[in-house]
Design goal:
Number of helices: 4
Number of strands: 5
Order of helices and strands: EHEHEHEEH
Structural class: alpha/beta
Shape: globular
Radius of gyration: 13 Å
CATH class: Alpha Beta
Oligomer: single chain
Largest sheet: 5 strands, mixed
CATH architecture: 3-Layer(aba) Sandwich
Strand order of the largest sheet: 1-3-2-4-5
Length: about 120
């Protein structure tokens, strides 16, 4: 699998990007520019994005507090793994490259078997 793209999310484009999750999983990355673990997570995501056919939607919690509240984001970084418009996994911690790769692989394999 190859591909994947990163989109800066806003309250205006959030729903439309999630609507694409029926054909391509979406990884929602809640972050803040001042958060050091978030910067590490972003780097890890960028390293893995080309190995998985996913869309990454980055949400700055300082600019989109309503989205943070709606998904009960209590710590950063928080990642939501979305498929068919539903959150199938939520992780509220910094993940290693190996952990993130495992979660993304499981998600994309699950989708392949459902098709």
């Amino acid at each position: 699998m190859t591909g994947g793209n990163i989109i800066e999310g806003t309250e205006q484009n959030f729903s439309s990007v999630l609507n694409t999750s029926s054909t391509r999983p979406v990884l929602v990355d809640f972050y803040a520019p001042w958060c050091k673990p978030c910067k590490t997570m972003s780097h890890t995501i960028e390293q893995l994005i080309h190995q998985h056919n996913i869309t990454v939607l980055k949400i700055n919690v300082d600019q989109s507090p309503q989205l943070s509240d709606a998904f009960q984001v209590l710590s950063l970084p928080t990642l939501l793994f979305v498929w068919n418009g539903k959150v199938v996994l939520k992780k509220e911690q910094l993940l290693s490259e190996e952990q993130l790769h495992l979660y993304l692989t499981q998600l994309t394999q699950k989708i392949k078997t459902k098709k």
